[in-house]
Amino acid sequence: MGVGSYPGLRLWSDSLEALDEQEGAHAYVSHYSSKRRLGLDKADIEFYDQPLPVGHIYVLSDPEHADPNGPVSIQPMTAREGVVSLLEYSFRLDITDRERNAREFETLSRLAERLPLFRLSYPRQYEMLPLVRGTILAHVDQLASQTT
């Protein structure tokens, strides 16, 4: 099960511009970042604050490794690759807490064994986003048809 953390987005100025948002109309995330906070009420994005089932996870590929003219692709990841990715994108307040690190590794290992993980790669161009969305939705439909 997954639960949304809070109803908002933290975006760089180019992302706000792509959404046709005025950068100055949004507060900074913090004093040390140029990211701006966008409330979901302004972005027309639904937010669910109740637990929902998670069927699989998409991990974004490093933009440096994406072909700027390449296709949108979704590739399955092994459990090992999934754990490494999940650890890479996890935030640790205290990296010296060995007990907590061990629990986190154990939890992420179980998660990667139970849920399919996929690497999503696409050119980082805003005009590609409708194709990215369509590719993800088609993939979700394909996965759903395999389980029924």
Helix and strand composition category: alpha+beta
Helix content: 25-40%
Low-confidence parts lasting 5 or more residues at pLDDT below 50?
none
Globally, the shape reads globular
The total of beta strands comes to: 5
Q: Return the string of H and E elements.
A: EHEHEEHHEH
Give the end-to-end Cα distance, rounded to a whole number of Å: 20 Å
Strand order of the largest sheet: 3-5-4
Radius of gyration, CA atoms, in whole angstroms: 18 Å
Residue share in β-strands: 5-15%
- Overall pLDDT metric: 88
For the largest beta-sheet, the strand count, sense and barrel status come to:
3 strands, mixed
SS element count, helices: 5
Quick rundown:
With 148 residues, the protein is α+β, with helices and mostly antiparallel strands. Helices cover 38% and strands 14% of the residues.
Topology:
Elements: E1 8-11, H1 13-18, E2 36-39, H2 40-43, E3 57-60, E4 73-76, H3 79-88, H4 98-114, E5 117-121, H5 129-147
Folded structure, characterized:
- With 148 residues, the chain is an alpha+beta fold.
- The protein has a domain at 1-53.
- It has helices spanning 13-18, 40-43, 79-88, 98-114, 129-147; strands at 8-11, 36-39, 57-60, 73-76, 117-121.
- Strands 3-5-4 form a three-stranded mixed β-sheet, with helices on both faces. A two-stranded antiparallel sheet has the order 1-2.
